[in-house]
Amino acid sequence: MMEMDEKDRNKFILICVVVLAVAYVGGNWATTQLIADALEYHELLPGRLFGHVFQPFAIDLWRSDAALYDAIQRTIRSYFYVAWIFYGIGIFICCLPQHDPHELARNGRLCQGRGHQKGRARRQGDRICRRAEPLQRQNHAP
Description:
This protein is mainly alpha-helical. It has helices at about 5-40, 60-65, 65-80, 80-95, 100-105, 120-140; strands at about 50, 55.
């Protein structure tokens, strides 16, 4: 992974925090909705927002009520993996390598084999490669 300057690092950390927060809430919400669906949206399930929609962390309410948890623990346990899939996707997105297109162009990797690109991506790539050509010649000069 390439080194990031302070501004880019802060932006990257902010984006990762947002992605992980969305993954956390989304994972809990998906788990809650799947469990509620498996229990046929029973009227005794707390945390209902409206209709068949429950709040994202209603599953925590269900776990904290001992009598309710005893009745539905098998269903809750059968859906534990759903939230972890969301968490894993969030972590994966944050761990994707971050590449600066200008750095790739300076190294010559971006400008090789670009014939398949069309439209805006092609024009933007051409612009980056034109700027990087003098730098490529300097880097590869004997």
